[in-house]
Amino acid sequence: MAQSVLPRSVQRLIDEFARLPGIGPKSASRLTFYLLRAADNQPGELATALQELKERTRLCSVCFNITEEDPCPICSDDNRDARLLCIVEEPLDVLAIERSRAYNGRYHVLHGAISPVEGIGPEDLRINELVARVAGGNFQEIILATNPTLEGESTALYLQRRLADRDVRLTRLARGLPVGGDLEYTDEITLGRAFEGRQNV
Q1: With 90 as the cut, is the pLDDT of residue 66 above it?
Q2: What is the reported pTM?
Q3: Quick check: 195 and 176 in contact, CB under 8 A?
Q4: Is the N end or the C end of the chain the one with fewer CB atoms within 10 Å?
Q5: Full set of structural domains in the chain with CATH
């Protein structure tokens, strides 16, 4: 009832915030009313940042991480170990691993995990590009760093089968990571130890 008295522009912003993951109706309302009270330039700066986000970012043509340059800074860094390839589900996982400072190789971002319930199959992920990259590369070790969830485990098993005929060491992050958790929420110490304790698959 109270929402009907809101101006249409205010209600629209509340609705748009509420569409974001982790933002409920109350949080959406708080954010909207914060911006209404904020300094005149803050909403404009937010709008500009959102516009630049869509205009300037793209996927790296090598690893499919989000970048403004192609190839991305990680792929073009000659100081990184080009013999190591870490496969993750999302760009946020790259950030989490980089914070741990336990890894200095290359990445491949799948942009999701296999989930039949959500209608996501292998063809919806960057798996074919991964297989082609491994075939044309000189990797000595491939680290399967998918999340320790049912979908992450299914994806890792599928990748293990797809890469089984390659002459490369396949490893999985150690089970020190909490089951059902996401890499992006894992602290640096736990993630660092998981890298140190990775095992053959």
Answers
A1: yes
A2: 0.81
A3: no
A4: N
A5: 2-56 (1.10.8.420), 66-200 (3.40.1360.10)
